């Protein structure tokens, strides 16, 4: 491949870039009072009727398709809770994201924003969603969900924030990471799963599903719903997993699964509890004869990774492990 | 350039794909009651404190940079109200969007989601935004904002919807277009302008600004704030424009401006009123010696365009007019 002198990276040969929505249905708003709209600063004040049909439940998917992909199947990239596909596009310190990594590795990429967020939009509450959303605070991001520092280590003053020892997340750029956050609801799991399942039905020749955090449960469940289309399932620190008491793992016995975990998981009870569900599902998969790989990064000598594995300063190293595993499956 | 046999389109040679946020600042939420969070279906119920710092005011920008751009400056693509950058990525009937059109024409593209929407996220109301958002109904989209059909022509049953005679919008796919809609507020003009201005400051060598609808006022104002960086301003059916009584058009006398309008503008009073602001600013620009091009598509024999010019079935024809104009300016 041709090399550019400026950045030593080969040029990507791209066939198409675009996007689409899947799912979505019309819902009717009723009983709302009339209001006015101002469309633009200084523009006319316009009476409007907010009652009527609006769209709800759609998911957004953006694709980059290569002129000559090396992988026989595309890579679907599913973000975690309170986040969008932006997680895969860039790192907080401005390095190339995993989307570019896997494009350069020869995969067509499909990066989605799940129902309720980002370019998927969201629907009115309490008229359509029964509850108000939740805005994750910087403290919760730092100390709990993404494990940048121990409990009590967040501080408004950047100079007084503390991180876990050896942290590989670029903590000085945490504000850029917080810009990627979006509000989240707890009431949209069914609609979200339905949209992911609808996405899979577009790919007759199969896909690789790569998920992060909240996306993990959706990805493993999508594979159960369409095992013939799921060529591999990769779950980065899944915050949940199917329940083996209620789900037959033999449905996906021919679908290889990779679980991958970072560091500091013992630093917050949320993660100790969340990890248990994946361990149970892993064991059930193995009992069913499924090929399961379980990587604890610290156990193979890679220390310091946060929950934001694709944002950490060794994100390409972690992506490389995922790529090596995928190449062995495809 | 190499041609593919499959789709007769040349391969794009791409140097980089990624994204970033501009603007954004931390705000503090206080006085909210404690609540619980369920992160994943069947996962642990977790107590959380919703009070603390969250990010607000950021804008999202996604770029595709070519290995060998033909244009000396990139193209910034700014959507309209209640919409996101998705408008530029695809058409409701699945044809390539204007982003691909201008990539193929040799422009690096920067497609943004303005403050309050899409991957820019939004901030809590009434704590940060003073008011609730507004969800545009399908009827309002159809009859008023996007001018697909006359007043009274929207119907829940697709078979009973009527369009304007000769409409070029793919009306059978209006649900796909509605999937692109996002909630909108009327209170974020200042934050949005600030973010657009911050975006321009990243481009020392200048840009072309291409806007639609609500984006028009932001684009024309951004040029006033940084005329040395705005190499050209293209406003597709701007819903507003700077006020010549309060703004000196001579600031942008060296910045060529293109205004472009579709059909059926006389079919709704909203558009007759909105267009007046642009006419006044156009006249003021001309008086200041600015090179202004004003295109009414019907006047040059192109009939049937809705407000969604980049979605209409002749979207490539309209894009071609814009491209021809740009080539004469750059």
CATH topology of chain A: Rossmann fold
Distance between the termini of chain A: 23 Å
Average pLDDT reading of chain A: 94
Q: Number of DSSP helices of chain A? A: 8
Q: Determine the most extensive contact between two protein chains.
A: A-B, 89 and 90 residues
What is the domain total for the residues of chain A? 1
What CATH architecture of chain A do you see?
3-Layer(aba) Sandwich
The CATH superfamily of chain A appears as Alpha/Beta hydrolase fold, catalytic domain
Shape of chain A: globular
The run of helices and strands of chain A is: EEEEEHHEHHHEHEEHEH
Whole-angstrom Rg of chain A: 21 Å
- Name the helicity range of chain A: 10-25%
Approximately how much beta-strand content do the residues of chain A carry? 15-25%
Structure, explained:
2 copies of one chain form a homodimer. Chain A starts with 11 loop residues before the first strand and ends with a helix. An 8-stranded mixed β-sheet of chain A has the order 1-4-6-5-7-8-9-10, with helices on both faces. A two-stranded antiparallel ribbon of chain A has the order 2-3. In chain A, β7, α6 and β8 form a beta-alpha-beta unit. Helices cover 25% and strands 22% of the residues of chain A. In chain A, α5 packs across α6. With 330 residues, chain A is α/β, with parallel strands linked by helices. Chain A has a single domain, classed as Rossmann fold. At the A-B interface, β1, β2, β4, α2 and α3 of A face β1, β2, β4, α2 and α3 of B. β1 of chain A pairs antiparallel with β1 of chain B.
């Amino acid at each position: 491949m041709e090399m550019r002198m400026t950045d030593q990276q080969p040029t990507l040969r791209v066939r198409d870039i675009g996007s689409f929505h899947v799912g979505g249905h019309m819902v009717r708003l009723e009983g709302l009072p009339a209001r006015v709209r101002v469309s633009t600063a200084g523009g006319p004040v316009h009476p409007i009727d907010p009652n009527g049909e609006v769209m709800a439940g759609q998911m957004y998917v953006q694709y980059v398709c290569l002129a000559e992909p090396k992988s026989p199947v595309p890579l679907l990239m599913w973000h975690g809770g309170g986040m969008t596909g932006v997680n895969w596009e860039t790192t907080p310190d401005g390095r190339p994201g995993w989307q570019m990594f896997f494009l350069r590795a020869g995969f067509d990429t499909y990066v989605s924003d799940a129902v309720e967020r980002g370019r998927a939009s969201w629907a009115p509450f309490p008229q359509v969603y029964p509850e108000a959303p939740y805005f994750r605070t910087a403290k919760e991001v730092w100390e709990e969900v993404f494990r940048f520092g121990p409990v009590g280590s967040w501080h408004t003053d950047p100079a007084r924030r503390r991180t876990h020892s050896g942290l590989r997340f670029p903590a000085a750029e945490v504000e850029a990471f917080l810009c990627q956050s979006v509000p989240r609801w707890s009431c949209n799991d069914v609609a979200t799963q339905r949209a992911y399942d609808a996405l899979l039905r577009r790919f007759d020749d199969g896909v690789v599903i790569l998920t992060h955090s909240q996306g993990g449960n959706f990805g493993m469940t999508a594979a159960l719903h369409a095992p013939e289309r799921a060529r591999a399932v990769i779950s980065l620190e899944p915050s949940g997993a199917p329940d083996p008491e209620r789900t037959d793992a033999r449905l996906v016995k021919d679908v290889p699964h990779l679980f991958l975990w970072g560091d500091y998981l013992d630093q917050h009870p949320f993660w100790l509890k969340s990890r248990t569900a994946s361990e149970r599902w892993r064991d059930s998969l193995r009992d069913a004869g499924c090929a399961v790989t379980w990587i604890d990064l610290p156990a193979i000598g890679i220390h310091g990774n946060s929950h934001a594995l694709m944002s950490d300063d060794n994100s390409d190293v972690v992506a490389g492990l995922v790529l090596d595993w995928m190449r062995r499956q495809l």
